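Regression test case RT-17, inverse folding.

Input:
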C-alpha cells in the first residue's frame, strides 16, 4: 500500500511513525507523505515533530507539510498535559522550516491512483473535512481511509462520552462521516485502549532498536505519557492508540469489524464530539463505517518488534539495500 499519514505527533503518533518508516525501509509499504493536524499540539509543531521522528528513523526525505491550523468551527484546544508542551513528552524537536501546501501532497498522491492508496488519520479529522469540502472530486476517489477516533458505546477520554480527536474538531468528524463515499475504518477507544505499553515493554523496545537514533529519544518521549496515564488513574503505562490504528489500517494485525452508520455530535456542549453508532439500523441510513470491534494486540506488539529490528539492522549497517526490499512483516 501507498500511505498518506495525517497525524498530530504526539507520543502514540510517534510509535505509528516508527512502524511506518520501518515498513517503508523494508518495502512493505510506501510512505507517500506525512501531513499534520492541529490537535495534541499546533499543526506546525506537529510537523516539526514528525520531521524529527522521520529523520531519527532514517527517512528525512518523505514529503511533509503542516495542515489546517485550527478546527472548522471551534477554537483549537491542545493537550500539553498529555503529550507535553512540545508534543513529544520530555523531548524537543529541532526548529526547522515547515511547508504548508498539504493539499497538493494529497492531490498528487490521489492522482497517482487510489486502488492502493490508504489515507490514515491519527489526529483530529480537520484536514480530511477541509479536503472533502475543497476538493470533492479528489476526495470521492479515496477508497481506503482509516481514522483513529471516537468512543463507541464506551467511556470517552476527554468528556464522559467523547474521545480526544473527535472532541477537538467535532464538526470535522461529523462532516467526514456524512460525506464519505465509501465506509471509513474506525479505530475507536474501545479497541485502541487495549494497546498498552508498560515500562518493561518500552525497555525491550529500546533494546530492540539497538543503535537506531530513535532509540536514544524514545524513553524521554514516552516517560511523560506514562506519567499522564498514571495521573489520570490508568496506571504507569500508556495507550498507544495510533500505532494500533496504522497496523489495523494496513492489515498488519488480525481484527474484526462491524459495518454500521456513525454520526458525531458537534453542536452540544454536553455531548460535543460524542460518536453514535446505529448498531440496530434504526436510522435506516447507508453504512458509512467499518467499526473495528477487536484486534490481536499480541500480534500488534510482534509487528512493532519487527519494525524495531529493521531500524536496528539499518543502524548497524548489517542489511544491504537490495536485501531490505525483501524484508517483510513475516521475516
Ligand atoms: C487520540 O488522542 C491523541 O491524544 C492521541 O494521539 C490519539 O490519536 C486518543 O484519544
Ligand atoms: Ca494522535
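Golden output:
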Amino acid at each position: 500500500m501507498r500511505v498518506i499519514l495525517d497525524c498530530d505527533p504526539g507520543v502514540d503518533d510517534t510509535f505509528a511513525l516508527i512502524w511506518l518508516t520501518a515498513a517503508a525501509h523494508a518495502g512493505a509499504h510506501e510512505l507517500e507523505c506525512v501531513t499534520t493536524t492541529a490537535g495534541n499540539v499546533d499543526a506546525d509543531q506537529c510537523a516539526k515533530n514528525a520531521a524529527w521522528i522521520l529523520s531519527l528513523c532514517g527517512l528525512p526525505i518523505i514529503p511533509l507539510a503542516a495542515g489546517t491550523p485550527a478546527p472548522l468551527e471551534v477554537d483549537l484546544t491542545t493537550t500539553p498535559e498529555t503529550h507535553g508542551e512540545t508534543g513529544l513528552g520530555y523531548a524537543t524537536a529541532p526548529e526547522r522550516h515547515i511547508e504548508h501546501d498539504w493539499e497538493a501532497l494529497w492531490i498528487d498522491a490521489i492522482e497517482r491512483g487510489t486502488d492502493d492508496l490508504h489515507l490514515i488519520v491519527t489526529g483530529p479529522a480537520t484536514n480530511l473535512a477541509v479536503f472533502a469540502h475543497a476538493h470533492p472530486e479528489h476526495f470521492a476517489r479515496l477508497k481506503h481511509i482509516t481514522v483513529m477516533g471516537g468512543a463507541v458505546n464506551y467511556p470517552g477520554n476527554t468528556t464522559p462520552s467523547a474521545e480526544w480527536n473527535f472532541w477537538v474538531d467535532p464538526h470535522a468528524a461529523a462532516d467526514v462521516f456524512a460525506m464519505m463515499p465509501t465506509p471509513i475504518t474506525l479505530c475507536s477507544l474501545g479497541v485502541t485502549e487495549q494497546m498498552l505499553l508498560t515500562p518493561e515493554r518500552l525497555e525491550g523496545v529500546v533494546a530492540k532498536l539497538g543503535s537506531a537514533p530513535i532509540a536514544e529519544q524514545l524513553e524521554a518521549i514516552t516517560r511523560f505519557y506514562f506519567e499522564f496515564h498514571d495521573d489520570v488513574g490508568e496506571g504507569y503505562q500508556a495507550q498507544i492508540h495510533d500505532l494500533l490504528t496504522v497496523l489495523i489500517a494496513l492489515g498488519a494485525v488480525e481484527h474484526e469489524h462491524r459495518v454500521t452508520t456513525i454520526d458525531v455530535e458537534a453542536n452540544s456542549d454536553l455531548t460535543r464530539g460524542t460518536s453514535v453508532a446505529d448498531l440496530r439500523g434504526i436510522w435506516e441510513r447507508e453504512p458509512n463505517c467499518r467499526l473495528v470491534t477487536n484486534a490481536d494486540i499480541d500480534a500488534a506488539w510482534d509487528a512493532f518488534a519487527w519494525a524495531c529490528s529493521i531500524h536496528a539492522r539499518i543502524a548497524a549497517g548489517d542489511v544491504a539495500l537490495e536485501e531490505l526490499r525483501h524484508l517483510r512483516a513475516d521475516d
